[in-house]
Batch of 2 targets.
Target 1
Amino acid sequence: MNDIVGIDLGTTNSLIGVMDSGFPILIADQNGSRLTPSVVYFPESGEPVVGAAADRMRTLSPERTVYSIKRLIGRRSGESEKDDFPFVVKSQAGRMLVEIGKALFKPEEISSMVLRKLKADAESSLGHPVHRAVITVPAYFNDAQRQATMRAGELAGFTVERIVNEPTAAALAYGLDRLGDRARIAVYDLGGGTFDVSILELNDGVFRVLSTNGNTRLGGDDIDRELMRLLKDRITARHPELRAELENKLFAARLREIAHAAKIRLSTEDVVQVEIPFLSGHRGFSYNLARQELEAIARPIIRRTRSHCLRSLDDAKLDPLKLDEIILVGGVTRMPIVRQFVAEIFQRLPNIPHNPEEAVAVGATIQSGILSGQIQNVVLLDVTPLSLGIETFGGLMNVLIPRNSTIPCKAGEMFTNAVANQTAMQIVVLQGERELAKDNWELGRFELEFEPVAKGLARVGVQFEIDANGILHVLARDIQTGREKIVDLNSAVDVADEAVEKMIAESLDHAFEDMAERLWTETVLKSNELLPAVRSALTLVGEQIKPDERRKIESLVQEVETALKSHDQRRLKQANSELDEGTQQLATLLIDRAMAEAAKRKR
Amino acid sequence: MIDYFALLDLERRPFIADESLKNAYLRKSEMTRAQTNGLDALSSVNMAFRTLSNPAARTQHLLNLEFGDARGGCLAPDLGAIFGPVAEAVQMADRELGSLSAQSSALVRALAYQKVDGVRERLAEVETELSKRYSGLLSELQQLYEIWRIDPAQCRDRLAQIALRLKFVQKWLSEVHERQIRLEELA
């Protein structure tokens, strides 16, 4: 059959859908669930297990259960700061690999296992094979991440008909029954591992993206991690003797599950009792976690989405009041603090769909319907999220295709030889918004070949085209000979990464000696930044807090000062972190004060 | 060189209303999609829209088409005058932002937010000034249309000056906006 399925390949969960009599329908697995956890468990012997069954193994076999692989797909070594996974992540020839026992897996191979399960579920449900798919990615994914996602689809046995941006897919799901309307909407998509914000214009069935922005390293997983840290602190406060035991992987895995579940419950309850039975031996641990505590640690993470929203609005040249609707996508947006935050930025209440986890999959399915012709009169005009350019003389980036250009799009540049008989010239292709080439992400490099002629006589035209998937294709053409060549950028990347590998290997030799000293210095720097800040803050807004609050802060300051003399890095780090947490309220008061003064001045 | 105006079935002119340009683009985009060699042609249509929606790029494109003009002219004195305050405001913002890192705690950032009030004001001032220039230049383009209809050649010098000014004003506006957003990130 020629069905095209729509797939949301999420960090935490994946979904698959298909068009049925003109409607997008999400497919359930044998247990009736439309959500398949993006988790793969590798037993000592036998086939890998995917989905809910694998998810259950996270706390039992954390080193052999892979989750949130989307955080690694398409990334090169050095791009992910210690993501803190319980399974082993290695670096080889510039690529990130997952190591289970003796076997090594590329991230796209793991993703393809998830896709294969979805494929099997769909085929079982539909009663016939499916070969074609639309797969979604975060709008802010770069070229390598998109290509890796396509490869994952191909490895699973799909022909990937289109890579679609997640916020755009969600907009499709929202707008499908409002096709006659004209509206401007913003999609705020906060998932497990990635954040995107897109602004679209809906006009008679045409969904046109005006701008998109985001962060591929920001999501619910970060909140889980902070909550884990908080719970660990509470446990060690009560049971300091357990500190070492808490470092083991099994416990970390259990704690992550507990933290994640608590976070979800706190969206509807004000306080939850966190239970860790048999914490150590017969000892259990019970703690009442209040929503405010969660919000205090989640707030700085959520706040990081603000600048992306502002940039997106700026690029779309729209004032937030000109928007008709704000749509929330992703499970994390169920948190009340996220809803409040979005309402503040966009100055209106967001639209809360019943199932924020399903919107993207529904949208992907709609796109599959558009491609197969089952849905007419709907058109998607998406954009490329990052500016594309090349490195020029002086180490600057010359933008060829600006960000938020509608795709597909292309740009051409003409190159000539700088010296007589020059046979090659290296072109470095970049994606990003910074002035200097080195501050942007290198997509790849290639060698332009020249015929040996006098200086300035060679003419090679290079065409850069970004296709409807947001993936770059480069075509070089020698004007004299008329010869055309499709430029392959992949191979060039390995060469660059080998150099990086070598650099990392060399620095690692010295790293051990320096490491301890460096950590201490970093921690001291933080103290030296924090202490004067606290004193200033107390001077400026100290009278607004209660006296015992103030005393508490002062004792935390004391602890930092003592720890500084102790040369105990762990102790100082802990002291810094407690002072940081303890002065959050002061920080808020300061911001309020600054904003009030600014408002007064405007009048 | 491709004539982006012709590609969108538009008459060559210095000023196009946003709505008209958008409608022309959507119309052409739909027609192109229906054709068989759709995808390649679609890229050009998208680039045409991109170029024509950007006033600086559109004006330069018009000059290139009509007069085969390369970039010309030196920085106008009035622009030179505003360059100073813009550069200063941007550099001040960068200095403040540079002293913070991703590791800085909420309190440190909050204090910085307090402190950079002066910088924020400066940025707002130059932003207003630049926006005024920008609107002014767009109005000039609109007014030039009358002369353009009668005798395009007469507009050449004026268009060249506007193209140059727009290029710098647009660039500086985006630099200023970027710093304003980064300062907001502190809150």
Target 2
Amino acid sequence: MDYRTVLTTCTYCGCGCGLYLEVLEGRVVGTIPCKTSPLNEGKLCIKGWNIHEFVHSPKRLTHPLMRKNGALTPVSWDEALDFTATRLREIRDANGSDSVAFLTSAKVTNEENYLVQKFARAAVGTNNVDHCARL
Amino acid sequence: MIDKIKMEVRQLFDSGKIEGFLGLREFNGHVGPHLFTDGADLEGLVLGDRKAPGDSRYPLNKLLITIARQYPNETFGVLSRGCDERGLKMLFGSNQLDPEKVVSVGIACPQELADACECMKPFPDSYVAGQPAEAREFESVARIDAIGLDERFKSWLGEFAKCVKCYGCRDICPMCYCPECTLGGRNLIDVGSLPPESPVFHLTRALHMAGRCIDCGLCSQACPADIPLRTLYKKMADIVDEEYQFRPGFSDTTKPCLNILGEASKH
């Protein structure tokens, strides 16, 4: 028997509602709002209630893709990161630091958002940082 | 109280009567549903009384349907309050769970919870722990009934206007097991638009609670807009009781009352 409830945080927006995902035989089958989460107190919006549905979606990106000859092609993380770093440096050197902007996300953790802004300011040298949840 | 429950669950495992126990567990600082599969490891098992009695209750019966379908040969114990037991009876009656495969481990609710719930029977038929609290009348229903019809209707429309159409009342409901839901039917409900059609959306659900709602109150707790759904469904239960002499989980028959044709079918 393999039925587990896994405590996690909703990734749909920046609120951070607490929820349990029901996992049956390794597959996520349901969502239960966490009663003791101080933020949402056992409540969810319609997106949160259905968050289990996207986990196994075949439409999800599971590896980096790069456009080569007009077609998205799976590549290794090393290749994707090397390409991004090289192009970022080229663009910055040619046009200045403020020619680059960083858009962070509600779907990642506070720590990851911190890293993005730190990278933007310290590594690239721009204050052009914005966020998808600044509606 | 928790020790008595743990002892009972351990005995059920040891005697081979159950292969799993669906209860609540405090883990990582939160209380949530958990399937215990080893009688020797019941660490963290709690009753859902974290800061106040019954403040972290979950629709365990509903989760049990999912589990029982996956493991039809296993027998499961499940933590049951009075409302949960009423739910079990109804789910047995509508063939959603097999009574031969479910062992209810009952607890009686404290008076504080029974008062807050206005519960007509705050304890299961048999319980391992707790003292039976006194039943309470539906005072919330009486308060609303005391208002004149026009004002009452206006008051409900005001409540429904707060709805964000999250479907949480349905999703948390232990009696909402239908594979196809009327509230998701495009022919009846404008599913993709906000706000929901008022009062059709809410009254449709209320009608579907007729002869079903076991008054656990999880819908009201799950509502982000604090719509007093429980009061609405309590009223619905009163109407059904008056018309059909049937109250879900209380009556001898556990078949939903609207499934019974009654005298009219004999003509």
